[in-house]
Amino acid sequence: MIVLNQKSLIPNSFLFYTDDFKLVLERAMKVGLESIIITGGSLSESEKAIQIANTNDRLYATVGCHPTRVNEFDHYSDPQAYYDNLVKAVKNGGSKVVAIGECGLDPYFPPTIFQLKDFQLFPSNNHKHQKLLKKKKNRYFEKQFDLAETTRLPMFLHNRNTGSDFVTMIKQNRHRFTSGVVHSFTGSLEEMLELVNLDLYIGINGCSLKTEENLAVAKQIPENRLMIETDCPYCDIKKTHASYKYLHMVPQPQVNLEEHSGSQGTNDTTSNTPEKGKGSKDVVFDDNDEMWLNPLSKLKNKYQPGLMVKGRNEPFTIRQVLRVLANIRNQDETQLAHIVYENTKRVFFPLSRQNPSA
Questions:
Q1: Which residues pair with 3 in a beta bridge?
Q2: H/E element holding 28?
Q3: pTM of the predicted protein model
Q4: Backbone angles phi, psi at 76, to 5 degrees
Q5: What is the 3-state composition of the chain as percent helix, strand, coil, each rounded to the nearest 5?
Q6: pLDDT class for 289, splitting at 50, 70, 90?
């Protein structure tokens, strides 16, 4: 299986504890992951993603600029120089770079964007201000179609609450890029079908499975257009999500929390195990093959090697997304994993790279 979009593997802003990068990778490979794509959200992140990918045969990277970071084009010496360096990063990354992105449209604007001179002329709620922001995002999304056309790489696409704007831009530029996936999809059934009809793939993670409406859409994604991801360190499946009940449709292993925490008395080690009286059933397994269902975690200030950091999603939880999708779609889990694997390989690894462990 190949998992997409691991932002947590660019570690600097997420390290509140001892660097556990190797342990994160070990947990990922134990659940069957073959390769991991690390997402670049800016020029510097893309360069860092490539640097990390070069340390491990199983890791790959994307190069691009996230819609909430497009102000970096203007903060650079000039926008063309920023673009030229994105092209350079793709070339320097060689076969380690498998997609352009994460790029797309998003109405959210980080506070730093208001520091730009062209936005200081208007108050933040002024309609002229909003038009300038939208125009800027559209312009630099368009620029990344240039990047995809130049490099002939597929696109890793972002879309959040943009109405018809995103689909309109995709339609206008679809002839310019080979293929792509709209990741972390939370849109409507109609939007999903439009994107599928444009020969694109739909990426599903925990954020794509929050509501009953989300689940209804996920059920309808054609299997030959489905991909799964985690969007680490975000988008884990939570107890409040509509998907959670589909995750725990099998007996769960009994875990000695005191043994895992190494502490006496009050225990701050947590898992996603359903509470007593809510359908849970204590069953002791001989191995830990399904510990990804109830991963033990510690608060970041009480980090313990071997356990997840509470609130930080990891690549190995990809099995949770697969489990939910298999259950809501009434498909065999192993068969669905094979379909998703082939879809991902078709887009990002068309030359059929050999498993590095083979």
A1: 36
A2: helix 21-30
A3: 0.81
A4: -75, 180
A5: 45, 15, 40
A6: low
